[in-house]
Amino acid sequence: MKVLDIAPHRDRRQEFSFAIVNSGHEVITVPGRREAIAEFKKHVFDLAVLDGESELYDTREFVAELCAAGVKQEPIIAVVMEPKNRPPRHRIAGRAENVVFLQDGSVEHMERIVGLAVAARDNADNPA
Description:
Layout: E1 2-6, H1 11-22, E2 26-30, H2 33-42, E3 47-51, H3 59-67, E4 76-81, E5 99-103, H4 107-125
Helix pairs in contact: 1-4
């Protein structure tokens, strides 16, 4: 799996990326939105990880921009949220099939959710 990690400043995000690398996957880290779009134009990614509440970009607009980036294979987009009183879908409109929301918590749980999302996308692409 090839992963694009966009502006991973929080400790939990770094721990999540470290776990992905330790699982044998490739992670490319970029500092922000513009660099992420440039990477999408050069490479095919299975997963893009971004913050639900970034100071660097508006998450809702960025998700739409990633989905429209003209990539060969749409990645699963994992929007990582710090735990709040309400679910993240209340804060980010325009939910798409390839977008999953991860509450910061156990890294193992986050990995499991992403694994399920990737498997669902792959099954949809290759029906039995």
